[in-house]
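User: Can you help me understand a structure? I only have the sequence.
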Amino acid sequence: MTTVSALFDTPAEATNAARRLESVGVPASDISVVSNNSDNWYSDPDGNEVANDALTGAGLGAAVGGAGGLLAGLGLMAIPGVGPVVAAGWLAATALGAAGGAATGAAAGGLVGAMVGDGVPEREANVYAEGVRRGGTLVSARVEPALVDRAQAVLRETQQVDLAAREAAYRETGWDRFDPDAPNYTADQVRDERGRYL
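Assistant: Let's start by predicting it. Here is the structure, written out as tokens:
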């Protein structure tokens, strides 16, 4: 399996990319979506009070992924260094170091460690994680060798972020790499960051 990933400025763009990956044959169970939720753009459809747990970094026993399709498995949780996120799929569970549905913390910044462990170059993984921290949405898929070219083509055809340009923009602000101990972005900071690129 090869991991293909893309960062998006809006959850809607990421959702479109995930659906397009499914349409070319990538199973929903092999697609992950991780989206910053500091501004509470997504709320639990069951009305569960989860935002406070996510904001304090506590784990949430939300199911991710699942037979009902990728988007049916969305759950609210917190990822160390990123903060509250809406997530589905294997990447979120790996980033959390989930055991029994509870976050146990993760080495190497959670999301970065999970991506590097799945073959994403460390430099890119740091930019992806920082992108989510600042309000973006990550789509990452484990793809069979026969589908890699098609999956990469699908992502190129979407409104994904130019990762090199975004990294350069972050570096202009003094950013060097994702810091799992950095403070979470506030709702206002996330809105400002998204507004910078939309």
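Now, to help you interpret it: The CA atoms of residues 81 and 179 lie 6 Å apart. The chain has eight helices and five strands. Let me know which part you'd like to focus on.
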